[in-house]
Structure formats: structure tokens, C-alpha cells
Amino acid sequence: MRLEFTKMHGCGNDYIYLDCLKGMIDNAPELARRLSPRRFSVGSDGLICIAPSQVADATMRMFNADGSESAMCGNGIRCVAQWLYEHKVAGDEMTIETLAGIKHLSRKGEGIWQVEMGAAEFEPALVPVKGLGPDPVINRAIAVDGLPWQVTALSMGNPHCVTVVEDVQSLDLERIGPGFENHPAFPEHVNTEFIQVMGKNHLAMRVWERGSGETLACGTGACASAAAAVMLRLCEPDTDIALDLPGGRLTIRVSEDWQIRMTGPAKTVYTGVVEV
Ligand SMILES: N[C@@H](CCC[C@H](N)C(=O)O)C(=O)O
């Protein structure tokens, strides 16, 4: 069977986008696993289906490279907006339904989208975090593969664990990342952001993503990092925070009541057809 797709990326976080507006497909996890391996197939961080919605302009369903589904994808939702805009399904303002709720997006320039991401949630049951007590996990010591780390855990619709480091570039994430992803404190596994304070309201971040490994960017991870940095008083609320990721820059604003706004690029790379 020939499958048409669009390859898009947001700050180098690249996914295969499928037009499912006529109806959601039932083999998306399998397609994500088959098409994501680099050099052996199309190659991507995962697969995103653009499906119909009763309550918004479209629905986004996102699948990591290992086929697991996530409720939310920050870079993916900007690309879905760009796809809907390019295909004239929606205009400069739109809503996209996700498993983490309906998100409002505004076009801010050529290929630039702003997303109202909703609230960062630190309540342990909502992350979810297990076995670390009833209080929010904020700058708490945990052991990962026998080594001590200070972590802050929160949800952006998907689970995140943020840790502040001295030198983010020197970390061997292939070695460190899986220990966080599979840590017993995170029963649904976790996306882990390693952040370094670069200056006032300026962070550098690398990420180990649940289900996909190290990626060049993570939108929800950037939001989680900015929220954790505000919680730890490393950055200020109600001001733009610049997040430098290996694949580019995202701008995040955290309000006093933890509502998060993300602004960043979304780019179509090519369209293609693959035999599946
Ligand atoms: N890269 C994404 C997040 C993708 C999902 C994540 N790996 C998860 O399983 O929660 C982003 O830009 O937010």
C-alpha cells in the first residue's frame, strides 16, 4: 500500500504527518515503529496523525518512535497548525484538539506559531509521580542508576522531569537518559529535560524523550523547563524566557498562575510516498 505523508519539523524535532481528516487510522503505533528508524525508513522522531474533530479545527494524535502515544506534543502542534494553514483548512487563528485538551494557536509570522499550552501541573498524582510522598516534587533528590540528581516533576499534558546542570553540552544522554525514562518514580515513564542557566531568563536545554530518545527539541519539555525554572526562581514569571535547544530557539512565557505560552517555528520539509 502507498502511504502519502508530509515531513515537518519544529526546531529539528521531526515527525511524519499523515492526513487522517477523512478518518483516524487504526495502525498508527505500528506505522510509527516502521517509519521512524533513520537510514532504514523515512526516519523521524515519530508519527503525527491530523484527524477530524467535532469541537476544534482538527485533532492531533501523536506517536513516539517506539509506537507509544503521548497526549501532547508542543513542536508537533505547531506543525499541525502550519499544515492546516498550508492546506487552507484553517486560518491565522485555530484550535486543535489533543488528548490533553483543546489548544488555541495564533500565527505570528511566516511559519511562526504561538500556542496557549494550558497550565503546568505540579500535583504528583497528575504528573504522575509515585512513591515520593504527597508533596510536589520540586528540586528533590532522587537516585538514577545509583547517582544523585535534583529533580522537579510536572505535567504539560505529558510527564516531565527537569534537572538543572552546570554544563548541559557535556552530558552523555544516551547513557543517562534511559535511567530517568524507566525510573520507578514515573509509572508512565517520563521526558527528562537537562537545563543550564545561560543568563537572565535564558536557558539552554537538552532532552531525553520518553519513547524516542534524545531529540533536537521538545516543545512541552521547553515549557516544563521554563515552568520549573520559574518555580526554582531561576527565571521570572510574566516575561519571555529564551530556550536554546540543539535544533533552535523557543520562547516561553509562564504566568503567575502557571499558564504557559509557547512561540516557535514550524516547517514543512517535503511531501513523500512510502510503500507500507
Ligand atoms: N517532542 C514532543 C513531545 C513528544 C511526546 C513525548 N515524547 C512523550 O512521550 O510525552 C514535544 O515537542 O512536546
Automatic annotation (TrEMBL):
Pathway: Amino-acid biosynthesis; L-lysine biosynthesis via DAP pathway; DL-2,6-diaminopimelate from LL-2,6-diaminopimelate: step 1/1. The active site is at C73, C73 (proton donor), C218 (proton acceptor). GO terms for molecular function: diaminopimelate epimerase activity. The keyword Transmembrane does not apply. Substrate binds at N13, N64, G74, N75, N158, N191, E209, R210, G219, T220. Homodimer. Belongs to the diaminopimelate epimerase family. This is Diaminopimelate epimerase. The gene is dapF.
